[in-house]
Design brief:
single chain, 7 helices
Length: 187
């Protein structure tokens, strides 16, 4: 393909690749990407899903590439991020399943409630991953685990005052994300 690897913000509408260029990119690289993902994940179905997701992202935010190797580097980097996201979602799901398995069956939430909790846990995980690690850990220990500032500070090797700053930063971050989500939500 012609032109450089242009971020969408830098490329104007006239610079966006046309449908034929995107179709050619798909034909040239989809099989390779799916094979790469299958080797990485050890699962053909997950590989097919993530390869599809990668090309959907390119449809939403088209890019041009200097060469086939540049396209493959970009696709591999994007696919690697999709793999990491998949593994994190699965870790959250596994932790939720283990929590449910430890509860008496009579106290088990309905399937709908289980799905809502799992979705909320994944959203919280995504929010926490956007924070610096110490800030996220201080928030989880202080808010979710109910530890005192002194206990969290001892765990993290910081002062209780610094713990308060970390927790306040995390709360502000969550509030800003929530506000942004409510502005973008259809009303």
């Amino acid at each position: 393909m012609a032109a450089a690897l242009n971020p969408p913000a830098a490329a104007g509408a006239a610079d966006a690749p046309g449908p034929q260029a995107l179709a050619r990119l798909y034909v040239d690289h989809h099989g390779w990407l799916q094979d790469w993902l299958r080797r990485r994940l050890g699962n053909a179905a997950d590989a097919a899903d993530l390869a599809h997701d990668a090309f959907v992202r390119l449809l939403v935010a088209p890019r041009r590439f200097d060469s086939p190797p540049a396209a493959r580097v970009y696709l591999r980097t994007m696919a690697n991020g999709l793999c990491v996201d998949l593994w994190r979602r699965r870790e959250v799901e596994q932790a939720w399943r283990e929590t449910l398995a430890a509860r008496p069956e009579a106290l088990a939430p309905s399937a709908e409630q289980q799905l809502l909790v799992l979705q909320a846990l994944q959203e919280i995980d995504a929010m926490l991953r956007r924070l610096p690690p110490k800030t996220a850990r201080a928030f989880v220990l202080g808010v979710a685990c109910g530890m005192t500032d002194a206990e969290v500070g001892q765990e993290l090797g910081v002062s209780a005052r610094m713990v308060r700053k970390h927790v306040a930063r995390a709360m502000l971050h969550c509030l800003l994300l929530e506000a942004a989500a409510s502005v973008g939500a259809p009303g």
